């Protein structure tokens, strides 16, 4: 996109991956951006994420896939500088235990599960051969995709935003109107916080627990995630350890790791990867995915008249779609600036 000359004063509520990427898109376009975040970046759901770029538990699939394809391009580029950005390209296998449904479903030509455009866009993606599948997997895909070390990536995003002139402030916002009091535009990237802030009762937590273990030598990622399943199995080799997942519990609010759940997660993974049986546990993590029947990415005029670009409800795919969504936020802010918005949705 070309740069603009008439800059906007923007308040972004939320300093997770969605808020920071949106803020960067705006700041690098020349706008004055201030991020207001209740939590430090390492205290957000984004910091807990396993960091795989693959659409999962996010709706509507059609839009999400387009955002994911855009993010794939950006993250592939960032993966050229892994030390600086936290992003790397890693080979892996996405499998399903059943023949239909989920992110990894055996969907024949890839149309039925809504991910056809994704399969077409990922360079080199192909069907896994039987000998490449762990026992118990019916089918799967092999692909080299971005895998993001999220704590490192969030630090990179904060540095990049600051370098573009953006400001990050630790502050809890009581209302979007308050956030936008002296601004031209508010961008609402408050994740689960949108439940109270908007308020939007459609936003709810899908709790995810994972275990970080000492890596016994696994270099590829592996995911078996059937749509709607409460328990999934995934392995994501990160520089800080091997991330073993996971769970997806609708409307569970606790962020306390459950030792029995952790044990079950590792046991499940060890059935397919026996070398995990004796792997030393380094950390336990729990995060609340900000789920919604569909991502809300649209402009609304707040009661005080200030336009607000909502960008929340990314469920289990926020890392995967963040850069694609950030592009749309910038486009919507420009439309507001040019007097062509806001649309209502
Ligand atoms: C276990 C687990 C594994 C995951 N793995 C993946 C993965 O591999 N790939 C993937 O794409 N996604 C994954 N996800 C999903 C991903 O983490 C989320 O979709 C993403 O982090 C959402 O980002 P966000 O910025 O919207 O929310 P958050 O990271 O939760 O950030 C919300 C921000 O809003 C701020 N905020 C909220 N309310 C207020 C307020 N009133 N005032 C001020 N600030 C406020 C918070 O402080 C925070 O800064 C995973 C999630 C979990 C839990």
From TrEMBL:
- According to the UniProt record, what class of enzyme is this? oxidoreductase
- State the needed cofactors, names only: FAD
Q: Name one GO biological process term.
A: D-amino acid catabolic process
Which positions fall inside the FAD dependent oxidoreductase domain?
A: 9-329
Question: Source organism's superkingdom?
Answer: Bacteria
The catalytic activity, as recorded, is: a D-alpha-amino acid + O2 + H2O = a 2-oxocarboxylate + H2O2 + NH4(+)
InterPro entries to which the protein is assigned, alphabetical: DAO, FAD-dep_OxRdtase
Q: What is its EC number?
A: 1.4.3.3
Keywords (alphabetical) are:
FAD, Flavoprotein, Oxidoreductase
Provide the binding site for D-dopa. 234, 289, 316
Annotated Gene3D superfamilies: D-Amino Acid Oxidase, subunit A, domain 2, NAD(P)-binding Rossmann-like Domain
Pfam families according to UniProt: DAO
Is DNA damage set as a keyword in this record?
Answer: no
Work out whether the entry's keyword set contains Oxidoreductase: yes
Q: Name one GO molecular function term.
A: D-amino-acid oxidase activity
| Protein residues bound to FAD | 45-46, 173, 315-320
Q: Name one GO cellular component term.
A: cytoplasm
Give TM regions. Answer: none
Family designation: Belongs to the DAMOX/DASOX family.
Name of this chain's protein: D-amino-acid oxidase
């Amino acid at each position: 996109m070309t740069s603009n000359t008439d800059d906007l004063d923007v308040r972004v509520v939320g300093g997770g991956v969605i808020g920071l990427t949106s803020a960067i898109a705006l700041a690098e376009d020349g706008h004055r951006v201030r991020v207001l975040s209740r939590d430090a970046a390492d205290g957000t759901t984004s910091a807990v994420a396993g960091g795989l770029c693959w659409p999962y538990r996010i709706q509507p699939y059609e839009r999400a896939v387009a955002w994911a394809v855009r993010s794939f391009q950006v993250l592939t580029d960032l993966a050229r500088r892994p030390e600086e950005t936290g992003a790397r390209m890693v080979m892996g296998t996405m499998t399903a235990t059943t023949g239909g449904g989920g992110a990894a479903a055996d969907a024949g030509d890839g149309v039925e599960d809504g991910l056809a455009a994704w399969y077409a866009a990922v360079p080199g993606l192909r069907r896994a051969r039987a000998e490449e599948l762990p026992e118990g997997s019916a089918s799967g895909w092999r692909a080299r995709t971005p895998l993001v070390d999220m704590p490192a990536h969030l630090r990179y995003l904060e540095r990049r935003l600051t370098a573009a002139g953006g400001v990050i402030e630790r502050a809890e916002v009581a209302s979007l109107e308050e956030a936008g009091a002296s601004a031209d535009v508010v961008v609402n990237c408050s994740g689960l916080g949108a439940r109270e802030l908007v308020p939007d009762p459609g936003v709810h937590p899908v709790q995810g627990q994972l275990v970080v273990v000492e890596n016994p030598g696994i270099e590829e990622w592996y995911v078996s995630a059937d749509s709607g399943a409460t328990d999934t199995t995934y392995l994501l080799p990160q520089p800080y350890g091997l991330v073993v997942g996971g769970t997806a519990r609708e409307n569970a609010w606790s962020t306390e790791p459950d030792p029995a759940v952790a044990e079950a997660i590792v046991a499940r993974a060890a059935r397919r990867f026996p070398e995990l049986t004796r792997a030393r546990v380094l950390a336990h993590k729990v995060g609340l995915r900000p789920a919604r029947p569909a991502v809300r990415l649209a402009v609304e005029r707040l009661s005080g008249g200030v336009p607000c670009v909502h960008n929340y409800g990314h469920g289990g795919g926020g890392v995967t779609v963040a850069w694609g969504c950030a592009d749309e936020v910038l486009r919507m802010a420009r439309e507001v600036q040019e007097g062509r918005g806001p649309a209502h949705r």
